[in-house]
Write a structure and sequence with these properties.
This protein is of the alpha+beta class. 42% of the residues lie in helices and 19% in strands. The protein has a 5-stranded mixed beta sheet with strand order 2-1-3-4-5. A 5-stranded mixed beta sheet has the order 11-17-16-13-14, with no helix packed on it. Strands 10-12-15 form a 3-stranded antiparallel beta sheet, with no helix packed on it.
Length: 499
């Protein structure tokens, strides 16, 4: 391997796995199902649920979910789709019979289940039927959907009920499932490809045991689940409702992470066929939504979407990772098409990133809410990865700024007044650099004349106090930042002379 390729591969393994922060890799918990048993264990190759999260979901989508049951129309539609795939020789007769058995068994188990467990399996069955009724149950979509159907049928009758967001895997497989409320276990595409990147990184950066057999199994399994989403490209789809989107849909963030995983796996495992698999996925970045993820950004350039069903939602961490994945694949695979797609979108990313800054924290999406601490850290990580690859000083500046937001206490300054009038309401002013709980105490000698506590955003604010008598008063202000959970404190003081 040429020296520059080795250098890039090492950097990519260490820096572009989204779930890894500075220091040892975080080990996430996963429920491993083996026959009739299910045990919970740590897996260092798994990202944290926050790092692999699809994002914030619109409340209306959660409210619309309810227990569903199989319908006669749905059953007929599934049967027609399987028969059509068999007659057109898109699937073998043995595969056709296997799918029919999986579907019939799922419906039989569903009839015996009650309550939430039945509703979870019922949702997965109704998803298969709904996709069939919309004429979208093509042959390439069958492996992923029927794998989900088989795993949910296996899990829900007897296994411990998981918490929302729990990861689940099954013995003999490296695919990561995640529990979504009311939707059963769903293949978590992003988490699975992050896992591949971490397994690869362990072989190059010694962040854990090198297990090439697990990496190869994972990439082979995911290759079999790739869907021919259009004549131009394959994709790894999500098969459940989310944020107002109806399945099947795709994510640029997950797709670009897949590009990284296959490029690195090709190097580590000497499997050049993985590069061809990834190249077949590039068309998603050339195709507009809802089929692909290419759209016009809010600064006028090319933007890649987190959700193929939401062309007006611009999520900063997802777009950054999408651009980063194209860059890595272009370099590792020496692929001019991926490099062109990177160059088409990177100028828009550079123009968009400043809009993520609210002054003392990051914003999750354009004109959206502020990031939660995990999403703030995720954005900082991908910006740092852009910086290390020397893709622009802007990414370095914002990575540093967002790290400072996490690690530095608020800057707190007393702004007066120097004098006040007895029995007159007085604004005791201060400046604050970040969202904090601010406490004020005012003393005359050893006597505390005033005390208050309130929450303030960055900027200039005041507490209002009416002194009762003349004299010199000491003002003590302290601030405790509220976002990171580290309880960083800062203090300042001043004097007020009351006449």
């Amino acid at each position: 391997m040429p020296p520059h390729r080795r250098l890039l591969l090492g950097a990519a393994c260490a820096l572009a796995t989204l779930a890894s922060a500075a220091g040892p890799a975080h080990a996430s918990r996963v429920i491993v199902v083996a026959g009739d048993r299910a045990v919970e264990r740590d897996d260092p190759a798994l990202a944290s649920p926050a790092a692999a999260s699809l994002g914030r979901e619109a409340p209306r989508a959660t409210a619309s979910l309810r227990a569903r049951s199989s319908s006669a129309r749905g059953r007929r539609a599934v049967g027609r789709a399987l028969t059509r795939a068999l007659r057109t020789k898109r699937i073998s007769r043995s595969r056709y019979l296997s799918y029919r058995r999986i579907y019939a068994h799922a419906r039989s188990v569903r009839r015996r289940l009650r309550g939430a467990r039945g509703a979870q399996l019922g949702y997965v069955i109704s998803t298969v039927e709904g996709i069939a009724l919309r004429g979208r149950l093509g042959a390439s979509r069958l492996p992923a959907l029927f794998l989900e159907l088989r795993r949910n049928t296996q899990f829900w009758p007897r296994r411990r009920y998981p918490a929302v967001g729990d990861f689940v895997s099954f013995r003999g497989s490296e695919i990561v499932f995640q529990h979504y409320a009311g939707r059963g276990l769903q293949i978590q595409v992003l988490a699975t490809f992050i896992k591949a990147n971490r397994l690869n990184g362990a072989c190059h950066k010694h962040t854990g045991p090198c297990q090439p057999s697990r990496l190869e199994r994972l990439l082979d399994e995911m290759t079999a689940l790739a869907v021919r989403r259009s004549k131009r490209f394959i994709a790894w789809e999500y098969m459940f409702e989310f944020g107002g989107g109806v399945p099947p849909w795709m994510s640029a963030m997950a797709q670009s992470t897949a590009l990284q995983a296959y490029a690195r796996g090709a190097e580590t495992l000497d499997r050049p066929d993985y590069l061809e698999t990834a190249r077949r996925a590039l068309g998603a970045f050339e195709t507009p939504p809802p089929t692909g993820v290419r759209t016009r950004g809010f600064r006028g350039g090319v933007h890649y979407l987190q959700y193929s069903f939401a062309p007006g939602l611009y999520i900063f961490n997802a777009f950054t990772q999408s651009v980063l994945g194209l860059y890595d694949f272009g370099k590792l695979a020496d692929d001019g098409r991926a490099t062109r797609l990177f160059k088409e979108a990177e100028p828009e990313l550079a123009r968009e990133i400043p809009a993520s800054d609210v002054g003392d924290w990051s914003r999750y999406s354009y004109r959206g809410r502020e990031s939660t601490p995990p999403y703030h850290e995720l954005l900082r990580e991908v910006l740092e990865s852009m910086c290390v690859r020397r893709l622009g000083d802007l990414y370095c500046r914002y990575a540093t700024r967002y790290r400072n937001d996490q690690t530095k206490p608020a800057v707190l300054r007393f702004r007066g007044p120097e004098t006040a009038q007895r029995r007159t309401l007085t604004a005791v002013s201060f400046e604050l650099s970040k969202l904090s709980a601010v406490e004020i105490s005012i003393y005359k000698g050893d006597h505390r004349a005033f005390h208050a506590l309130d929450t303030f955003r960055r900027g200039r604010h005041a507490f209002y106090w009416k002194p009762r008598s003349a004299g010199e008063y000491r003002v003590r202000l302290s601030a405790k930042e509220l976002r990171t959970g580290r309880y960083l404190r800062s203090h300042t003081s001043g004097l007020i002379g009351v006449e």
